[in-house]
Amino acid sequence: MRRLRRTEPLRSLVRETSLEPGDLIYPLFLCPGEGVRRPVGSMPGVFNLSVDEALREAEEAARLGLGGLLLFGLPEEKDEQGSGAWDENGIVQRGLRALKETAAAKKLVLIADVCLCEYTSHGHCGMVVETRDGWTVDNDPSLDLLAQTAASLARAGADVVAPSDMMDGRVAAIRRALDDEGCPNTPILSYASKFASAFYGPFREAADSAPQFGDRKSYQMDGANLREALREIGLDLEEGADMILMKPAMPYLDVIRAARERFGVPIGAYQVSGEYSMLQAAFEKGWLDHDRAILESLLGIRRAGAGFIVTYFAKDAAKLLA
Ligand code: PBG
Q1: SS (H, E, C) 86-125
Q2: Which of 48, 132, 209, 311 is 20 to 30 A (C-alpha) from 8?
């Protein structure tokens, strides 16, 4: 076996998996204001950005040849229903309209995350109601809000909408709203298989979206379940999802592989905040080699079967690959 490992050109010739800047999607957290570049404590190198700063990031992303951007928003105010999510003048809507004016946007796929948790005062991804047995996240009334959100983001210029809330039936509701509201060509990238994960911890600081009570286990999936993940994906595809996003990535590589083998649609994976932060922590301590660990973590996700990867390392990786 070692004959083919002898030199880099030989290794390169027989390499089975590729990693390219165009495979990578870079998440941005938009916030109100101007000239704002607020560091996220638990995610070194990640910032809350006002729209003007986000435009600069988009330029760099395009220059580096990244595949696209995934947009999240921190609204000025939150309420019970999360009305900032579908506000025509909401933070992501404004960001999209500004981005669309730039040359950079023509080279990037602008993906808008669709969820309520950054916009609700309680931090849950759907509507919270009181029942006899305590509070619950009410599925069906949430669908309307999510569908309105998706349509408003598409109208503002999102090339793709990506629901991450995990309500049942949301893909169908969103598809219907997009079709009815003049956006029949906007594809849906569904976070079909999203597990209730400890690895979202740092994101909740970045997006200010931690649930104020309880957890997300009644809507996000149990990490023990592979068959259920495949059912979730199958349902989302039946409802009209065009692509699926697997999340988190590293603890669920087997799920990505199984989905790749079962379904013919484009599949992305999200190397989530906790995966990023634990590597960053090890880099800060000098325990892992920064460049090699970044590329290896991403290559592993590609090898598992993901066509594209959402990662906070997108810019770093693109520079290493240049
Ligand atoms: C919104 C959403 C979350 C992430 C993406 N969209 C947080 C959550 O579900 O709690 C996590 C991304 C990351 O950790 O990087 N629902």
Answers
A1: CCCCCHHHHHHHHHHCCCHHHHCEEEEEECCCCCECCCCC
A2: 311
Q: For residue range 236-278, list pLDDT tens digits in order.
A: 999 999 999 999 999 999 999 999 999 999 999 999 999 999 9
Helix axes of 290-304 and 253-262: crossing angle, nearest 10 degrees: 30
C-alpha span between 291 and 130 (Å, rounded) = 49
Q: What share of the chain is helix, strand, coil (3-state, %, to 5)?
A: 45, 20, 35
Distance CA 102, CA 231 (A): 40
Measured in Å, residue 14 CA sits from the centre of ligand 1 at: 37
Q: What is the pLDDT of residues 116-153, one digit of tens each?
A: 999 999 999 999 999 998 999 999 999 999 999 999 99
Query: What radius of gyration, in Å, describes the C-alpha atoms of the chain?
Result: 19
Q: pLDDT grade, residue 115 (50/70/90)?
A: very high
Handedness of CA 272, 277, 124, 116 (dihedral sign): negative
The residues assigned a catalytic role are 194, 247
Q: How far is CA 137 from CA 70, 131, 142, 247, 296, in A?
A: 25, 10, 8, 21, 38
Q: What's the pLDDT at 133?
A: 87
Are 195 and 222 in contact by the 8 Å Cβ rule? The answer is: yes
The pair of structure tokens assigned to 175 is 């598809």
Distance CA 49, CA 201 (A): 20
Structural domains of the chain, with CATH: 21-321 (3.20.20.70)
